[in-house]
Amino acid sequence: MSVLFETTEGNIVIDVHYKEEPELSFNFLKLCKINHFFFAPFFALHKDIKVSCGVPEYPDVSDGRAITSYGDITINRKDYRKGNSLEIELRPVDNGSCDIGSVGFSSSPGSDSPRKAVDSLFQIALGPDAAQVEDQKCLWFGKVVDGFMVLDKINNAVIEDKKTKRLLRDIRVTHAHVLYDPFEDPSFLPSVTRSSEMPTKSQIANSRFPELVDKSDSSNKSTYNAVALELMGDLPRYDIKPSPTTLFVAKLNPITTPTSLEAVFGRFGTVIACNIVKDQNTRKSLCYGFVEYSDKSEAEKAYGTLQNKCIIDGNNIVVDFSQSIKRYKRENQK
């Protein structure tokens, strides 16, 4: 696995084909790393065919931004100059085929005929015929490997009209966890990483969550911003923020158990909950989970010590702060 998207309807895990499509994979992974996709809506839904995402300010802004819009980059010793789009040369392979869950960037003609330009706008195939309805050729670079229930919710969402095909009730990306990245980071990456604490004013104004409309009073800034936090985190109440005591762990070995996690993370404080997410059908580990501490300082100590240097059952695992408080929500609904 390479990226886990937390969305307002659940998690989507995407594998990228970084060996076969290094330029496209680089663009996607680095955009995830700088939180470019934060609070980006899914839109342009073609039922049983495809859905689009990757433009955070949609519909106010319809064009995406490639990672090169922030500076020059180097991929596998080849340099790419700064520009809003990343131009790549197509290899002599069939990139037009896809199946359910395929992920690809929408492309446009580059500066010369053999080249194609991509930005941050990507599509997820919801059926095997996605390539047949493309107004812009899609360059496939990845595959959804978990989160098909979320894709099913997107596919069955009610749309605004046949022209815009925008969802009447938003489904948005709330956080992106990069689980594996084989590429070296550009030097400018830390300086352009955006905050994932609060949506922009444009994103708030364009949010569509009908059940929360009656709470929103645009004349009261604090209430309006509070509602935005509720939308962003899928919170049970707008005055509850994502828990600072919960860590997200990923790239686990399939044999790793909650007991194994607790043995490692328990060295830094009192672990009050330890959960590894399993496939609902097979009950096999999906190789990621959550560890919750009793105190914020304990979580911060564990994160500072274990980030990028924790090996459990032979796997160098990912440790990050979780943006999800679904566990809190479940407990308060009991």
Q: Characteristics of this structure?
A:
334 residues; alpha+beta; Cyclophilin; Alpha-Beta Plaits; 2 domains; nine-stranded antiparallel beta sheet; four-stranded antiparallel beta sheet; 17 strands; 20% helix; 28% strand; Peptidyl-prolyl cis-trans isomerase; peptidyl-prolyl cis-trans isomerase activity; Cyclophilin-like_dom_sf; RNA binding
Summarize this entry quickly.
The protein has 334 residues and is an alpha+beta fold.
Helicity level: 10-25%
Number of helices: 8
Q: Please give the CATH architecture of the largest domain.
A: Beta Barrel
Strand % is 25-35%
Radius of gyration: 20 Å
EC number: 5.2.1.8
Subcellular location: Nucleus
Domain RRM: 245-324
InterPro entries: CRIP, Cyclophilin-like_dom_sf, Cyclophilin-type_PPIase_dom, Nucleotide-bd_a/b_plait_sf, RBD_domain_sf, RRM_dom
